[in-house]
């Protein structure tokens, strides 16, 4: 690039800037909800540790002033700060705070600070003062034990070690004084914090896991719906392609099939590219679909000029359907007529009869052929009758029934409620 170019390299913002911007806006993009839940747990652990260390460091001057062995105090506090910094950076970079090794390391350090208190904290300052800062650190370590262990038994064991170390050091220091109740309540605090934080962390993680599973299930359901939509769209065109591939296709049928194939090709093209329009054609999605029941049946029969179809639809004139239901009825009727063409046999005739029952507001369409028929108990309906006629119509509040007998033709009855 030329030196005088006005284009400057765009750098990715630092992670902490992204975090601050996300915090201010109250939103942000996370890879998964489970990762977001883990980040929430990490944020709680990190913030709690920072606050605890800040409180300890604020009390450092007073602690050092009263310390009996200041070099032990400084050494232990330095170890705690260094270990905390390394641990916090690690879990932030990994975005995961589940680590038994980390929990054990922090527990060992917390127990060591508690057991070493008699060496650097005077007896009178071991309970209820920040001179003895180890009990406050130990409470924070219980948070680590609660969120970092996969098993509850490990959490209880580590928290129990912290509580035992606290009692071993603090109880002898208070003797028979009134501070015994403080020691007992502080000991119970370790157990209560451990169980409470573990329960909350597990609940947050479970919410994230359940949300991801629900999202995956919804995505799979959407994929199945889209697959079914494509299968329904391509079912009738596949039948037409089968005819066109037949070298012995009746020339009288070839012209009709080509016209239907062109119409289906335009429909598929409109489906693949909704902005594409074919001059002189109408797609099912262009908003021009008639909502009259009789028109929906006539539209389906219009392409089957090779079949002797008798339309008896005057009794259903005026019955209104919703546009999606009208399109579904047209597609189902066309699929039935494709089956008649393919299976009814030569010379079969078809009657499409519509009826309206004003008393209960229902309507009925029957598509009857006098072909060879079949035995439904031995021959299961194919995909077209099962899905395009059955399931697709049911999705729009319509029902279908197939009645057939060998040698007596087939009747498909479609029923629904008028708008």
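Q: What amino acid sequence fits the structure above?
A:
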């Amino acid at each position: 690039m030329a030196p005088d170019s006005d284009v400057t390299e765009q750098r990715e913002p630092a992670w902490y800037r992204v975090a601050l911007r996300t915090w201010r806006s109250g939103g942000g993009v996370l890879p998964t909800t489970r990762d977001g839940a883990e980040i929430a747990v990490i944020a709680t652990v990190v913030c709690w540790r920072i606050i605890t260390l800040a409180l300890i460091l604020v009390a450092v001057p007073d602690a050092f002033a009263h310390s009996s062995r200041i070099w032990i105090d400084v050494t232990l506090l330095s170890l705690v700060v260094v270990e905390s910094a390394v641990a916090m950076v690690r879990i932030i970079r990994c975005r995961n705070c589940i680590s038994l090794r980390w929990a054990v390391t922090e527990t060992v350090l917390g127990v060591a600070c508690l057991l070493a208190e008699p060496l650097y904290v005077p007896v009178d300052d071991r309970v209820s003062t920040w001179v003895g800062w180890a009990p406050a650190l130990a409470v924070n370590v219980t948070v680590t034990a609660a969120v970092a262990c996969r098993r509850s038994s490990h959490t209880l064991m580590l928290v129990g070690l912290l509580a035992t170390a606290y009692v071993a050091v603090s109880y002898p220091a208070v003797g028979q004084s009134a501070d015994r109740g403080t020691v007992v309540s502080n000991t119970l605090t370790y157990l209560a914090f451990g169980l409470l934080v573990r329960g909350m962390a597990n609940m947050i993680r479970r919410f994230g896991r359940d949300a991801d599973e629900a999202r995956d299930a919804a995505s799979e359901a959407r994929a199945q719906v889209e697959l079914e939509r494509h299968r329904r769209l391509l079912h009738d065109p596949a039948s037409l392609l089968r005819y066109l591939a037949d070298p012995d296709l009746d020339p009288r049928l070839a012209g009709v099939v080509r016209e239907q194939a062109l119409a289906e090709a335009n429909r598929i093209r409109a489906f693949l590219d909704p902005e594409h329009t074919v001059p002189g054609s109408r797609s099912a999605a262009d908003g021009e679909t008639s909502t009259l029941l009789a028109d929906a049946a006539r539209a389906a029969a219009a392409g089957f000029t090779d079949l002797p179809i008798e339309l008896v639809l005057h009794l259903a004139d005026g019955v209104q359907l919703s546009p999606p239901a009208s399109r579904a009825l047209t597609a189902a009727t066309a699929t039935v007529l494709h089956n008649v063409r393919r299976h009814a046999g030569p010379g079969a005739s078809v009657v499409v009869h519509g009826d309206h029952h004003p008393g209960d507001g229902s309507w009925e369409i029957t598509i009857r052929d006098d072909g060879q028929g079949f035995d439904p108990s031995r021959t299961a309906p194919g995909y077209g009758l099962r899905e395009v006629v059955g399931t697709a119509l049911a999705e729009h509040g319509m029902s279908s029934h197939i009645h057939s007998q060998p040698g007596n033709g087939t009747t498909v009855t479609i029923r629904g409620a008028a708008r």
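Q: And what stands out in the fold?
A: The beta strands are 309-312, 350-357, 362-369, 399-404, 410-417.
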